[in-house]
Amino acid sequence: MNLQWYPGHMTKAKRQMQEDLKLIDLIIELVDARIPLSSRNPDIDELGKNKARLILLNKSDLADERYNEQWSAYFQKKGFYVVKVNAKSGAGLKSIQGVIQEACKAKIERDRRRGIKNRPIRAMVVGIPNVGKSTFINSYAGKACAKTGNKPGVTKGKQWIRLNKTLELLDTPGILWPKFEDQEVGKRLAFIGSIKDEILNLEELSLELLDYIRTNYPGLLNTRYGIKEEGTPVSLLEAVADKRKCLIRGQEIDYAKAAGIVMEEFRNGKIGRITLEFPPVEEETAHEDHP
Ligand code: G4P
């Protein structure tokens, strides 16, 4: 897969991020629960050191619940606060407020010692494109959408959304750049639809996805499409085409159409809750059954 990313764009995004980070206490980083590592950019760890950190495992409704738990534990072990959410439905959002207070204890205590009372925590949402940043800001802050307007010392155009007495959110999210260089990461981003389909070979992608699902989630393809899960990936795609009547002029198999169905149904969760990436196995708990 040959994917292009423009260094100029990246440098500008990074510079903007550095500026914005100066204004805030807490980074709320969204990752996609189906690919929590591939959908994050570890550069944010360097950029955001000294800030309180909260990771939201978003789209947790589309990911395998067992792995949602494991990923939460994984990030917690690394020192992040973690909340599983579904920004679209609002599930999980209620518990965020309490976790933020906990994550920012040090800042609250520092303020108290210095005699600063009631200074709200300032937070910013970051993440790679398509992880759900806007959806999250709208559903979390949407109702409280009383914008505080520009304040002295704040870059013109920046707006703070006042969520309550203790929390203010920058209204525009910080966009992180995905790590395309790694082929496997690129593939996972393609699976979830974070790379424009026009530049991908969807048929090839669907074959890999079918093979992955049949291996890691036996039974799901049979349940969804009523097909046998044996044979080559091509035969699986042909079986889907057959069941869904994907035919050109009534006889030839329409591979492109069948591939489109598989990708679309995977992406919106119709095939099932599927996680594409598992937490790296730590030394002491090494298993051989992790792909
Ligand atoms: P971004 O700002 O980070 O780029 O992402 P954005 O909010 O635009 O969300 C990208 C897509 O992901 C949207 O779908 C959005 O509805 C969907 N989404 C966000 N959070 C969740 C979640 O927790 N669960 C699920 N299932 N989907 C989520 P879209 O296809 O662009 O639009 P639509 O389907 O809402 O019409």
From TrEMBL:
One GO term describing the cellular component: cytoplasm
Chief localisation class: cytoplasm
GO BP, sorted A to Z: translation
Location in the cell: Cytoplasm
Keywords of this entry: Cytoplasm, GTP-binding, Nucleotide-binding
Residue span(s) of domain CP-type G: 10-178
GO molecular function: GTP binding; GTPase activity
Binding site for GTP: 58-61, 130-135, 174
A Pfam family annotated for this UniProt entry: MMR_HSR1
Function: Required for a late step of 50S ribosomal subunit assembly. Has GTPase activity.
Family as reported in the entry's similarity comment: Belongs to the TRAFAC class YlqF/YawG GTPase family. MTG1 subfamily.
Classification via NCBIfam families: GTPase_YlqF
Protein name: Ribosome biogenesis GTPase A
Organism: Oliverpabstia intestinalis
